[in-house]
Structure formats: C-alpha cells, structure tokens
Amino acid sequence: MRSQNKNILKLAPLAIFAAFLVGCGEKKDAAMTPDATSGAGAEASASASGATVVKIGHGAPLTGGIAHLGKDNENGARLAIEELNKAGLEIDGKKITLELVAEDDAGDPKTGTAVAQKMVDAGVVGVVGHLNSGVSIPASAIYSKANVVQISPSSTNPDYTKQGFKTTYRVVATDAQQGPALAIYATKTLQAKTIAIVDDATAYGKGLSDEFEKTAKANGATIAAREATNDKASDFKAILTKIKAKNPDVIMFGGMDATGGPFAKQAKELGIKAKIVGGDGICTDKLAELAGDAIENVVCSEAGLSLSKMPKGVEFAEKYKQRFNAEIQIYAPMTYDAVYVIADAMKRANSIEPAKILEQMPTTAYKGVIGDIAFDEKGDMKEASITLYNYKENKKSVLETMKM
Length: 404
Description:
Radius of gyration: 25 Å
Order of helices and strands: HHEHEEHEHEEHEHEHEHEHEHHHEEEE
C-alpha cells in the first residue's frame, strides 16, 4: 500500500497539469468558434434559435496585389450581416439568420466564374460582388442562369449591365461617367493639350481609358501615346521612357493601386513632370504608400460621393473602425448598402426564394449610407456622382464632386 500511495502522490501533479491543459483547450476552442455570421457559426446559432439560415454571397480578391481592397469590401458586407442578425429578421412569419458566404475570386475571370458557380451551388439568395469588372462580367452569366441577383459594389465597366441580364445591378457610377469626368478635369482644369494613356489591359482599366479618351479628344486634346501593360506588372520604365519622349501634359493611368503606385513612382524617377490622373482603382490611401513622394503629382476619381459627403458616411466610418480596427479603403460602404438592399428586397417579397427577391429589385428605393439607391432599367444607379481627389500628407483630399 505504501508504494501505491507513493505512486499516487507522484501522479497527482501530472493529473492536475493534464486538467489544466484540457481547460486551456476548451477556452481555445471557444475562442476559435466561427463567427455567428458565417459557416458553421451561423448554422449553430440558427439551430439554437430555431431560425432559418439564408445565405448571401460575396466575391472579391482576398489574395494577390489588391487583396486589401477585396477584404475592405468583404468587411462592409460582414458588418451589414452582423447588424441585420442582431436586429432580427422575420420573413413570412419565420425567423431568419443571414450567413455570409465569402469567396476569394483572386481578381481572376476564370477563378471568378468557378466561385460564382460554387456560391450558386451553396444556395445563396443574392450575391454582393465582384470587385473587378473583369470578374463581374463573366460571373454575371452564372447568376443570370440561376435567377440570383448580383449587386456589384465597385465594377464600373458599362458592359456589365449592358448584357440584357435581369440579375445585374451595381451601386456605383460607371466608367461612361467616370472616364469623362477625369477627361473634363484634365482638359478644362489642367488645360492639357497632349495626353498619354496607359491601361492594364483588364476590362476595367481598358474600359475606363477608352471612355476617358473619347471625351479628351472631344475636348480638343491630342492623344500623344496609347500604351498597354498588365495588372501584374511592376516595371514600367520602358513604357514611361517612350512617353517621356512625347512630353505630354497629362498621363492617364487605367488600373489598380498595386500597379498605379509603382507607375507614378517610376515616372518621377525618370523626371516626368506630367500630372498623372486615374480612376477609382488607384484612388486609395495605400497608393500613397506605393507611390512615395510621387503621390503629390496624382489626381484620382471615385465613382461615388466621398465618405465625408455620404449622408451616413461619418457614422459608418466610426462603426467600421470600431468593428475591424482599420480605415475604409474605398467601397466598403457600397458592399454594406448592397447587403441591405438585398435584405430590403427580401422583406418586400416576403420570401427567401431568389426569383421572388429578384422580382423586387427594379422597384428598390432604399436610403443607404451612400444616399438614395434606385436603379434604372439596366440595373445602374439612377443618380451618380464622381468625386475627384488629390493627396495631402499622404491622405486623399477632395478636390471636387461632379454630377454626371
């Protein structure tokens, strides 16, 4: 017996230590429980409350050079889902819990169509996305076939809503408005006579540049050079050397901030004095980080009102910062509103069936963070504004707002 007691005494500390580890494991598991707005978390929460889970999809690049923009969009959608669930939703007498199905489309058309099919197969009732026009356009055929509404918060290429699909909507202005606004600024305010244009050969970059070129020519400017790169490029010295020889007054860059920043930086390194203008793809605070002191020579546009001019922009920015401990990049307010627009259509339909939700979309009249949201027969915003910015102390500063 004595030897047994000895062994027990030796084992006791080990047992206490094991119990401690189990307790820590339980706490760790609890901390790692999925967000109640996504995946198993939403299903478990709904099961506990007797609610029906309704899925809303979101597609954007969460990897690659513009992942920061994709995550910004996803955050806006997630914030809306969380608020709606907290407030409580009831459709046709049944409690509803919304689940965000967030997918990484990598900013790639092929990946985007696969993601679109995956979300349709998962049973989403609506989709907020995609970020890039080059992804939204091919993915839209998948949603159209499934009768699932698609609201892009940031795709500006006019072709997106020109396909005749009843499912395509957006909550931003188009490049048919943004391109001319930039061209008017270049030719009227900057009084540019000769302009060079560089685009990244994507549906967005080329489309924006094409619209810019039309208005610039109509306003009497000469296009001294038109060059194309790609959305993965990092070295623009060859293109910029050719442009420098033309000595343009302004250079228009059609692309995203991941390429626009190095482009502006290298232009300054080559001693190019021309002002660089670009669209919403480059119009982020991150551009300042990528361009360095060349940022002082950049003017960019956004296909909507500035956050400070949005009816509920300041309030939204505070909520966003509190929830994600980050500043808004560009289109988080649009993804937030897009989720609410789908929820509003669901309420008016008194149904969670995608086809019935879709039927309500043309009569949308929703007051969101960005302002009044109503759509024309193509799915574009009835009222659209373009905001122009320059940079002061590495932050965007509003130059002017144009109604287009």
